UniProtKB/TrEMBL annotation, chains A, B:
Xref: Gene3D superfamilies: Chitobiase/beta-hexosaminidase domain 2-like, Glycosidases
Name of the protein in its database record: Beta-hexosaminidase
Keyword tRNA processing: no
Protein family per UniProt: Belongs to the glycosyl hydrolase 20 family.
Function: Hydrolyzes the non-reducing end N-acetyl-D-hexosamine and/or sulfated N-acetyl-D-hexosamine of glycoconjugates, such as the oligosaccharide moieties from proteins and neutral glycolipids, or from certain mucopolysaccharides. The isozyme S is as active as the isozyme A on the anionic bis-sulfated glycans, the chondroitin-6-sulfate trisaccharide (C6S-3), and the dermatan sulfate pentasaccharide, and the sulfated glycosphingolipid SM2. The isozyme B does not hydrolyze each of these substrates, however hydrolyzes efficiently neutral oligosaccharide.
C-alpha cells in the first residue's frame, strides 16, 4: 500500500534514472574533497588494463599491500572477467589503459595507525590514470575511488571519464564496531575481535584473529579489540574463578555474580596478563577498555567490597570504586604503550585518566550527545562519536538519512575543542544481529556515516542530493556481491545473485 | 551496551538451554491442536529410514505430491546425509524406521484450494510413524510435523520421541503476500505472481509463473495473484494506451496520468482479456483485484470523467465512480468463475459486490481493524486480516511478539460473524525489501503469524511460552539453510553457513 502521490514521484524518478548515466554522474562514495569531471570518456578493455608502479615510486613490485590491491581491484572493477579472448573482445577497445601508482613513503609491511596519511591525488586522462599518495594507505583509498569511476554502458563496454581528484579524510578515526559476543559471527562475516561461546564451535582462535588482522591491513583497516570491563563480563567468570564479585543476599552469597571484583590484587594480576597477551596479538596502538553500564547493586551487597570502600574512604560513592578500577587498568595498558579508548561513563565519573585516553560517546536519546561533546573536549580529551550511529537499531523506511545528517562538530566549543573530535564509530551491537542479517542491516546504512566521516560537511550537507548517489553506490556494492539492502523502490542493472 | 540485569537473565537462559534437550521439548511449530509426547525415544538411522504408502492408502507410489515430499523431507530431516556407509554408521542404530502414510482421498494431481482438508493424525512409536490424512495436503502438514519431531543428540545421532498428534488448521486461509512490483524478486526468492520492470532482465515469463505454481502445489501452497486496480497502475499505462486517466491542469492535459479510466468501454474490454489470460495461467479459484488507495485528484481534473459523472448521476461523489469500476471488474471475474478478493476500501465505499467476495483488511493504526472486522462480517462478507501483519514494517527488538498476540476473532459480533474470518495474510510490501533482505525480514517473524492462523488460540496465548519454542524453530530453519534472523542473544547448534 503506498500513496499514489509518492508512487507517481517514484515513477518520475525511475524515468530520470533510466535516462541518465548514473554511474558517470554520481561516481565516488564517500564524496572526495575535490573532484572535477568532464564528459570526455575513455574506453577500457579489461584485457588491456594494467596496474603499475610509477618509476619514481618509493614502493615497487613486491609491496604486499599494493600488489594484493591491484589484483583485488581488477576483480572488483571487472566482476565478470574470465580472461581469454572472448566474443566481447570484437567490440572492445584495442588500446591499453594504465593505472600508474606512486607513493612517497615505501613502507609496505606495517599497519595503518592513527598517524597514517590517507590523502591521495588521482588524475584520469586518455589511456591512463595517475595516482599519487603519501603512503600505501592513501594509495588504497585512491584505488577505491578509481574503481568506482569505471562504469559500463548499455552494451557492457567499460568507460572512465576524464577526472581530477584531490582527496583526504575529514576525520582520522572512522570506525565500525562488530559485536561478536551477543551472537557468534562466523569468520566469513567478521572483520575483527575475540569472543567466547560454545567451547568447540563458537570460538575464534588466535589464527582466526591473525587472519582478520592480515585481511584488514591489506585494505588499510585498523583492528581495535574491545575488552569491556568491569561490567559485561559474565562470561569471563566462567574461566577465571574469583574474578567477578560474588553478590550477597543479606549475609550470604546468593550464588550470582556481578561486575569484576575491583578490590583484589589478583584481579589486576589477571588483567595485566590478559592485556599483555592481547598486546602480543593485536598490533594496533589503541585498545578499547569499555567501562560502560556498571551496575553497582552487586558491589553494594558484598561485605568485602563494603570494607574496601571504607578503607579507601570512598564513603558510599561507588562511582569512586569504578574510577579506582578504571584508573588501574588504564595504567596497565599505558605501561604496555597502548592508547586506551573508554566509553563516556568513565569521563562522567571523573576518573583520573591519562590525557591521551580517547572517550567514546554512546548515550544519545534522551541524553544530549552534543553537550557531552562540549564537556569532554573542554576537559581536553579526544573524543569519538557513536551515539547517532547505533546501526543495529533499525526502523522502517530511510533511516540512513538520520545517520547522514549528523554533524559531529556542531556543539558549543572553541576551534581547538572541535579538533579533539577525532571521528566516530558505527556500532553494530549483536542482540538481534548475527550472520543471517548482518550484511543487509549494515550496508548501505553504514555508508551514510562513512561519507559523514570522510567528506567535506558543506559539500555533503544535502541528504536529498546524497540519495541518488547512495542508490548508485548501493548498486556498486551489489555488483561486488555485497548483500546491501535497497534504499527505496527501483532496481539495479545487476541485481543481487547470491541466493 | 546492555543492562547487566538483562545480561544476567540471558546468561541463565543460555545455561537452561544448554542443559535441556530443546529439540525434544519444543518440537512442532505451529503448535498442533492436540499433541502428547513421552520421554521414550527411538533411534533413527538415516540409512534405514523409509517413507512408504500404507497398503490401504488411496494414494500409492506414483502420487506426484507425496513421492516428491518423501524425498524432500528426507533431505530436510538429514541435511548432512551423503549416503554410503560412513564411520558414523558404527554408532548408528541397525533397526529400520518406517513412516507409513495413508490418505483417504487419492487425488494427487490437483491444486490445494479453499475446500482442501488439511487435517492429519500422526502416531510415532517404536520403529514407525503412522500418518493418516484425509487428503495429500493434510499428509504434507503431517510430514512437516514429523520432520520437526526428529532431533539430534550431542553425538549427532537422530531420535524421535513417542508422540501422538491430532491436528488441523484454525483458519483455512493463511497467506503470505510478496510484492514483486516495488522491487523485482528473482525467481529463487519468490513464490508467486507476475510483474514488469526492465523489459529484458526484470520480468517473469509464463514459464516462471508455472514453475512457481508447480513448486507451490507440491508443498500444498495456493498461489493467488493480485492485479491491483484502478490505482497502483502507473506501469500498466506503459503498455496500454488510453488505459489510464489523463490528468488535466486547468483546461489542458498535464502530461501525467492517474488511475485506470473507468469511463471507457475499452478499459473493460482490456481487463476482460487480461483476466481471461490470468485465469488460464493461475489455477486457483481466488483472484485479488486490489481496489485500494485510489486518489481522486486526477479523475476530478479530467473533463471527460466529469461529463461521465454527470451522465451517471454520481454528483461529485467519486467513491461512486470507483464503486462503478469495481462492480464491473468483480462481475468480469465472477463470469470467469473466480472468487474475488478486494481490499477493505471497496467495502468502505459500499460497492454492490457479490456476497462471495472476500474483503481484506489492511488499515491498522490509527484505524481500528477490530471495528472493521465487525462491520464487514455484520454485512455477511468473508474477511481476511492483514493490518497487524504488515511484516515489511520493522522495528528494533522482538517485534514478532506483536504479530503473535493478534486475536483475529476478538471483535464485537456473533459466532456466525466470527466464522466469516477465514484467515489472514502476512504482507511483505517491497518499498524497502528485495532479494537482499527478504529472507531475514520474513523469517522467523512470519512464523509468529503462522502459529496464530494454524493453532488453537487458548493453547498459544502466552507469547513468553512461545519464545523458546520459536527460538528452537528458528534454529530448525537455519539448519534447513533458511537465512532466518535471531530473536535475541544466543546461538544454534548449527549456525547459518550460507555466507
Amino acid at each position: 500500500m503506498f500513496l499514489t502521490e509518492t508512487k507517481r514521484f517514484h515513477f518520475l524518478l525511475l524515468l530520470i534514472i533510466l535516462h541518465s548515466e548514473v554511474e558517470q554522474a554520481y561516481a565516488v562514495w564517500p564524496m572526495p574533497q575535490q573532484m572535477s569531471q568532464s564528459t570526455d570518456r575513455y574506453p577500457i578493455n579489461p584485457q588491456l588494463l594494467a596496474f603499475s608502479y610509477a618509476r619514481d615510486s618509493a614502493a615497487q613490485s613486491g609491496c604486499s599491500v599494493l600488489d594484493a590491491a591491484f589484483e583485488r581491484y581488477f576483480n572488483l572493477i571487472f566482476p565478470d572477467f574470465v580472461g581469454g579472448t572472448g566474443l566481447s573482445n570484437i567490440w572492445s577497445e584495442p588500446k591499453p589503459f594504465t593505472v600508474s601508482v606512486k607513493v612517497k613513503n615505501g613502507e609496505c609491511d606495517g599497519f595503518p595507525d592513527e598517524g597514517s596519511n590517507e590523502s591521495y591525488n588521482l588524475s584520469v586522462s586518455a589511456g591512463q590514470a595517475v595516482l599519487k599518495a603519501e603512503s600505501v594507505w592513501g594509495a588504497l583509498r585512491g584505488l577505491e575511488s578509481f574503481s568506482q569511476l569505471v562504469y559500463q554502458d548499455d552494451y557492457n563496454l567499460y568507460f572512465v571519464n576524464k577526472t581530477e581528484i584531490e582527496d583526504f579524510p575529514r576525520f582520522q578515526f572512522r570506525g565500525l564496531l562488530l559485536d561478536t559476543s551477543r551472537h557468534y559471527l562466523p569468520m566469513p562475516a567478521i572483520l575483527k575481535t575475540l569472543g567466547a561461546f560454545h567451547p568447540m564451535t563458537h570460538i575464534y582462535t588466535q589464527s582466526d584473529v591473525k587472519r582478520v588482522i592480515y585481511h584488514a591491513r591489506l585494505r588499510g583497516i585498523r583492528v581495535v579489540p574491545e575488552f569491556d570491563s568491569p561490567g559485561h563480563t559474565q562470561s569471563w567468570g566462567k574461566g577465571q574463578p574469583d574474578l567477578l564479585t560474588s553478590c550477597y543476599k543479606g549475609k550470604v552469597p546468593s550464588g550470582t555474580f556481578g561486575p569484576v571484583n575491583p578490590t583484589l590484587s589478583s584481579t589486576y594480576q589477571f588483567l595485566n596478563g590478559l592485556f599483555k597477551e592481547v598486546t602480543s596479538v593485536f598490533p594496533d596502538s589503541y585498545l578499547h577498555l569499555g567501562g560502560d553500564e556498571v551496575d553497582f547493586t552487586c558491589w553494594r551487597s558484598n561485605p568485602n567490597v563494603q570494607a574496601f570502600m571504607a578503607k579507601m574512604g570512598f564513603g558510599s560513592d561507588y562511582t569512586k570504586l569504578e574510577s579506582y578500577y578504571m584508573e588501574n587498568i588504564v595504567n596497565i595498558t599505558a605501561a604496555l604503550n597502548k592508547t586506551s579508548i573508554v566509553w563516556q561513563d568513565v569521563f562522567d565519573y571523573r576518573e583520573r585518566i591519562p590525557m591521551d585516553t580517547v572517550l567514546e560517546i554512546w548515550k544519545g536519546v534522551p541524553a544530549d550527545y552534543r553537550a557531552e561533546l562540549g564537556r569532554i573536549t573542554l576537559a581536553g580529551y579526544r573524543v569519538l562519536l557513536s551515539a547517532p550511529w547505533y546501526i543495529n537499531h533499525i526502523s522502517y523506511g530511510q533511516d540512513w538519512r538520520n545517520a547522514y545528517t549528523v554533524q559531529p562538530q556542531n556543539f558549543s566549543g572553541t576551534e581547538q575543542q572541535k579538533k579533539l573530535v577525532i571521528g566516530g564509530e558505527v556500532c553494530m551491537w549483536g542482540e538481534y544481529v548475527d550472520a543471517t542479517n548482518l550484511t543487509p542491516r549494515l550496508w548501505p546504512r553504514a555508508s551514510a556515516a562513512a561519507e559523514r566521516l570522510w567528506s567535506d560537511e558543506e559539500k555533503t550537507s544535502s541528504v536529498d542530493k546524497a540519495f541518488p548517489r547512495l542508490e548508485d553506490f548501493r548498486c556498486t556494492l551489489i555488483r561486488r556481491g555485497i548483500q546491501a539492502e535497497p534504499l527505496f523502490v527501483g532496481h539495479c542493472k545487476h541485481e543481487y545473485s547470491g541466493l
